[in-house]
Amino acid sequence: MSILVVGSVAFDTIETPHGRRERCLGGAATHFALAASYFTDVRVIGVVGEDFLPEHEAVLTNRGIDTRGIERAPGLSFHWTGAYGGAMNEAKTLGTDLNVFATFSPKIPDAYKDSEFLFLANIDPVLQAQVRSQMPDVKLVCGDTMNYWIADHAANLAVVLKMLDVLLINDTEARMLSGETNIVRAAAGVLALGPKALVIKHGEYGATSFFCDRSFPGADSVAKPFRAPALPLAEVVDPTGAGDSFAGGFYGYLASQPKLTPEVFRRALFYGGVMGSFAVERFGTERLQSVTREEIEERFNLFVEISHLDLVSNGAGNAADAGA
Amino acid sequence: MSILVVGSVAFDTIETPHGRRERCLGGAATHFALAASYFTDVRVIGVVGEDFLPEHEAVLTNRGIDTRGIERAPGLSFHWTGAYGGAMNEAKTLGTDLNVFATFSPKIPDAYKDSEFLFLANIDPVLQAQVRSQMPDVKLVCGDTMNYWIADHAANLAVVLKMLDVLLINDTEARMLSGETNIVRAAAGVLALGPKALVIKHGEYGATSFFCDRSFPGADSVAKPFRAPALPLAEVVDPTGAGDSFAGGFYGYLASQPKLTPEVFRRALFYGGVMGSFAVERFGTERLQSVTREEIEERFNLFVEISHLDLVSNGAGNAADAGA
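ok -> structure tokens follow
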């Protein structure tokens, strides 16, 4: 089934301990769409300037991504400049030039209206709400946000949170949104604000899902949390877009399945981790342009291998059999 | 098989957002021994003062722990005072009164000499090395350390690291020991210092094992890392001793099994998380005194449930079957 994503299509200037890249293609919608494109059809809503050339659009269209919803405006595209230190777990933003994004008003092409899955990437919650309202019949709505909107646009964000089936945020954002430091209580606090399900991303430690109650089709009978691992990586070249790639793998897999079940939701968290792990291997969108379906399945199996006990053969015996 | 543990038996004065406890029984060897006692026989080497009363010893002997190696010395027992803030992930040490521990010289009773598993809890590496040298025939040696020894006793610690089969430390300690920020490279750096296997504890995010090479019997054929989850807990009453309880569950399970295999090693990581999750539910050793074997198995199953896909029925289908 088709995913409609609204978010930034941008240029990033990135500095990490592995080097520097000037104005490479980026933006939340770009990373999300590339990751999701390995699982299902993706349609993008965004705005770009005159610096967005056919070669940039080809990055998306080569993956079969529908770009008819990317509006062209006079001026320059959104441009973000950031740097990562040694630990690479947080970017230092050096510059945010909104450019054509400053006056963006999302318009949904008629050809997109039958999209069944909606993803509201990290943009102004006012725009997220506008798009959500124009797509009343979607099957599932998933969204992202960030510290800036949580801190300074709380009232607008509150409206969006009530519109979401699934919210994807990180630990810090969950703590900010809820005012709780304990992550389980933070999750409960966030769920009380509206979303039916919550995925909290822990960076290099994986992700945890939490559910409002068992009525959400991705929740098991007692709506228990679920923990998916991340791959221990010896080399992170560029973390930019890792969270959006996680979201693309997660939501792309959900949209590719005939039915949303607890098991599908759990596997989606694994595919999220898989796509995030590819994204950081190279600068910008490089790795997500070149990954193959076979590599994705191979890495999914690796995620299982490094996190699962051998429950089938039960070869190790059980503590209950042992002494003491 | 029997575990011999050497480490602190102490009193802790603890303040957390849930309250304050004065001089409750604590110490690394105490938490470790209690956790391990649910899996196998445990023998303790340590020193206590005149304030260590029969009621304190009974906490250990009630769990069948052998206390004949706990030496009595004139004066007071080791006393630690610490406080935890809202996030509860790091203790602020307010006082460390070594007391009888300052002049501790471990002596191993003859009755302990046939112990097959040795655990060197977090104490002066000089003492760790002394005990290791007196137990040349043990089957497996596992040890712990902390920032203080890493920073100020590096040469002594280097000697111990070469004596270890398994080292258990946390993220910060692994980074300090190796000088690497990336955790996979940090693990490689630590393994180069001597231990054959390394377990890095990530607090609320679980733990990861790393192996020097495939010659370690707990490593799989390519010595891949393995990630075990932690339980998302809504209430952490007192984190004191969580790491030692993890070590006790981990090593106690290893010692309870007839053979060390990769699957046994993986399950041991799960049991470590299980015992750590119990430890933090109440102050001091309270919870580890009262937990039952049934509760341990129940929680082990819960750890599996919140981290494992349903690979048997494969009910959700596979991304390779889906569109795009």
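The longest strand of chain A covers residues 19-26.
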